[in-house]
Amino acid sequence: MKIKTLTAALACALPMTGAFAAALDRSGQSISSFLQPGNYAEAGISVLAADVQGQESGTSATNNKIDNMAKDYFFGSAAIKLQPTENFSFGIIYDQPFGADAKYSGDNVFVSNDSNTILGADSLAALRASTIENTFNALTTEQRVGAAVQAQGYDLTTAAGQAAYATALTSYNASEAYKNAIDTAVKAGVATKVDEGLAGVNALLGKGATNVKVTTQNLSFLFGFQPNENWNFYAGPVLQKIKGQVNLRGQAYSLFNGYDAVIPEEDAWGWLAGVAYQIPEIALKASLTYRSKIDYDINVKENISAISALSLLGMDPTTITGTPGKTSITTPQSVNLDLQSGIMADTVAFANIRWVNWKDFSIRPYQFGLTSEAVGPLVSRPNGFNLVEYSDDQWSVTTGVGRKFSDKWAGNVSVGWDSGAGNPVTTLGPTEGYWNVGLGLQYSPAPNYFVAGGVKYFWLGDAKAQTGAQSGGEEYVAKFSDNNAIAYGLKLGYRF
Fold first, then answer.
1. pLDDT value of residue 1
2. What is the three-state SS of the chain?
3. pLDDT value at position 78?
4. d(CA 47, CA 71)
5. Statement: 3-104+208-495 belongs to CATH 2.40.160.60
6. How far apart (Å, rounded) are the C-alpha atoms in residues 448 and 121?
7. Cα–Cα distance between 346 and 410 in angstroms, integer?
8. Where does the signal sequence lie (predicted)?
9. Which residues of the chain are modeled with pLDDT < 50?
10. Are 223 and 117 a contacting pair, CB within 8 Å?
């Protein structure tokens, strides 16, 4: 049972793309194409169709249903591997490792409407009361009396106005009843102005629905050294491109209802390294691959439509909008362990174990971060909060069996599990892990090329969804449960 012939017949036995893994993980970052014998090339496409529905819950004042917020997601892959000598190999792998595509719809806290306010009812009432009280208390006796006289129609720059002011000031200081009447009238005037300010700010809140779209593209350049037929040591640089867009809308995001962030396409470099071991006689192959994190410093284009609300808290919004700064984004490090072994004639068992360091991943766009620090004390986050973060690392396992039925046909079955990246989790991706089952089928018209297809069905884990302001705590705004996804993949392979 030679691995060169068995692996060629069972190329589709390796797991199809993870498709709906934890956090933003999509492709699974397999290097199986680089470990194929001889010269090899492949190209593939995967389609993910998910149904992620939920219901307002937790801190939400309403209990509305949330329709499917997951959009269909398409991503491609390609690879070429060359074996110029018996001991050296070179390969390039293209994939789209991380991504998201989601949009809310309907009547819920993630879609704006005319009743939205910068804070929830209780918090808004507290803010209104404190603003009125603080503004009134900051007024001097002279200012209060002057405001009351002006409210009676007097012009303080005229003699009549000055006379009325002097009389009122004397009465204010001499009569407690008169003082209380003046204070009540002035406070009512302050309340009117505060209400006008709140109404003006609420009018600036966003319109439309919350949505997110993130794409990444990787080019991995692999250089391999094979001292003998058993060992393969490989490493190389990785070029990654990232771009994205986030629009927050709806009552769930309070002050950030109307926040927009555009991540322009940027590229950065990382690296990978690994080792593979095989015993051709028993179709045994094992590989361990590490991929580094990749760091970006990006000029994210931000807009916070209701930023003027900070003036109600005695802050100057221009200290945020007028402050340039870059946003640090780091895509996570990961480790893949791939195992394969012949278990009987024309049959192999395989497994993939993947770890991704999502626990250390977060996104805090620059102006978003400054604003979160300004309002953080109101939500018990004195150091601010992130737009997106995850509380746990991701672990996933896929295992299955592949079998060669004839010289032209082969297939596989697989079962997969993903831990998720924590719960509660961000409203921009409200699922926690999955279980899945998969089927794959390969047709080889000739020994040197094949067409392989696969399908996976996912039972998505239930999750509580929380905003950035709630992250790190137990509060949440919605629950998502009983959801599923289905993924399709097609791959063409050629040996030369």
1. 39
2. CCHHHHHHHCHHHCCCCCCCCCCCECCCCCCHHHHCCCCEEEEEEEEEEEECCEEECCCCCCCCEECCCECCEEEEEEEEEECCCCCEEEEEEEECCEEEEEECCCCCCCECCCCCCCCCHHHHHHHHHHHHHHHHHCCCHHHHHHHHHHHCCCCCCCHHHHHHHHHHHHHHHHCHHHHHHHHHHHHHHHHHHHHHHHHHHHCCCCCCECEEEEEEEEEEEEEEECCCCCEEEEEEEEEEEEEEEEEECCHHHHHHCCEEEEEEEEEEEEEEEEEEEEEHHHCEEEEEEEECCEEEEECCEEEECCHHHHHHHCCCCHHHHCCCCCEEEEECCEEEEEEEEEEECCEEEEEEEEEECHHHCEECCHHHHHHHHHHHHHHCCCCCCCCEECCCCEEEEEEEEEEECCCCEEEEEEEEEECCCCCCEECCCCCCCEEEEEEEEEEEEECCEEEEEEEEEEEECCEEEECHHHCCCCCCCEEECCEEEEEEEEEEEEEC
3. 96
4. 11
5. yes
6. 67
7. 9
8. 1-21
9. 1-4, 8, 11-15
10. no
> Which pTM was predicted?
0.90
Count of positions (residues) in the chain: 496
Amino acid (1-letter code) at residue 233 = F
Reference 54, options 427, 357, 474; nearest CA is 427
Quick: pLDDT tens for 396-405.
999 999 999 9
Q: Looking at the chain, which residues constitute the CATH 2.40.160.60 domain(s)?
A: 3-104+208-495
Instruction: Express each pLDDT in 171-188 by its tens digit.
Output: 999 999 999 999 999 999
Give residue 13's pLDDT.
44
